[in-house]
Amino acid sequence: MSSEKRMRCEVMTITPEMARRWIKATGDRNFRKPDLNKVSVIAKDIVEGRWQLNGESIGLDGEIVRNGFHRLCACVLAGLPIESVVVHGIPEEANDSIDRGKARTLAQWLAFYKVPGAKHCSTVTRNWHAYREGQWKWQSFAKPSQGILIEFFREHEKRILNAVRLTSRVSPGGLKPTQIIPLSLLGALACEGSYEYFKLSSHCETVQAYLEQLSCGESLTEGSPVIHLRNRMLGDRQGSSHLSPAMRRCLAVYAWNLLVQGESTNLLRYRLTGPAAQVFPAIQQATI
Fold first, then answer.
1. What's the per-residue H, E or C state across the chain?
2. Which residues contact 257 (CB under 8 A, 6 or more apart)?
3. What's the sign of the alpha-carbon dihedral 70, 122, 225, 195?
4. Nearest Cα to 167, choosing from 152, 188, 193, 149?
5. Is residue 102 classed exposed, middle or buried when 0-12, 13-18 and 19+ CB atoms within 10 A define those classes?
6. What residues contact residue 62 under an 8 Å CB cut-off, 6+ apart?
7. Could you give the CA distance from residue 75 to residue 13 in angstroms, rounded to a whole number?
8. Rounded CA separation 125/158 (Å)
9. Is the pTM of this model over 0.85?
10. I want to staple 187 with a disulfide (CB 3.0 to 4.6 A). Which of 75, 95, 108, 163 is the partner?
């Protein structure tokens, strides 16, 4: 009998006990070491109610897991049942053809939902969410599920679209602000720093001033925090200095905060490491 004829499919409610039993039965037959970060992300979706029956299947050969090992581990970690399509009777030789597809990116999901500037919106969404999770002090970010990021975008869609629109502009005779600081960072900073403004309007004077000063450095006074930020960032891009990802974010926030406070400085410096390390700065709100 062919493998196709032996297979059968059903929708099941999978309890943590069932998932644990199947994982134990699989033992070392699971050829990939589980990605604990991926398991944690899926478990968080389950606990917070984002798990959906979406047609993706758990593949079994008896009680041996052929597909969906991470989802079952997440079910156990979450301690809650999940509803899923389960395909029974998947033979061992099918392992070579499972999980070859490439997952959709956040930008592809936003484009599917007809979001203008989906690629830029996705990078701003990811970076702003990372800020809200306290990750800007890290050199790289954890990877939340697409469901978490899509939900975050939907909650803050107007602000993110405004930020992308503002940070993509060019001042006459100047550089694009995104030629100095990545749009993902600028957009997230604009979203958080003008949070109250964007409740009421698509325009924020402080964001506009920050972007214009980045774009046209010639008009800035020597004490402007943005001229020092501009010089540091341009030097970093031209290779005369090297800033870590966390330090780039830190200096962008520090210069923004000084601008919001109306303060000048002769030196833009912040310590993130060493015995004199400072706490990573929180983005201050522009006043309305």
1. CCHHHHCEEEEEEECHHHHHHHHHHHHHHCCCCCCHHHHHHHHHHHHCCCCCCCCCEEEEECCEEEECHHHHHHHHHHCCCEEEEEEECCCHHHHHHCCCCCCCCHHHHHHHCCCCCHHHHHHHHHHHHHHHCCCCCCCCCCCCCHHHHHHHHHHCHHHHHHHHHHHCCCCCCCCCHHHCCCHHHHHHHHHHHCCCHHHHCCCCHHHHHHHHHHHCHHHCCCCCHHHHHHHHHHHHHHCCCCCCHHHHHHHHHHHHHHHHHCCCCCCCCCCCCCCCCCCCCCCCCCCC
2. 281, 283, 284
3. negative
4. 188
5. exposed
6. 25
7. 11
8. 12
9. no
10. 163
Q: Which two tokens stand for residue 226?
A: 């943005």
Q: Give the Cα separation of 230 and 47 in Å (integer).
A: 43
Q: What CA–CA distance (Å, rounded) separates 173 from 94? A: 60
Tell me the residue type at 209. A
Considering only CA atoms, which of 28, 120, 23, 129 is closest in space to residue 77?
23
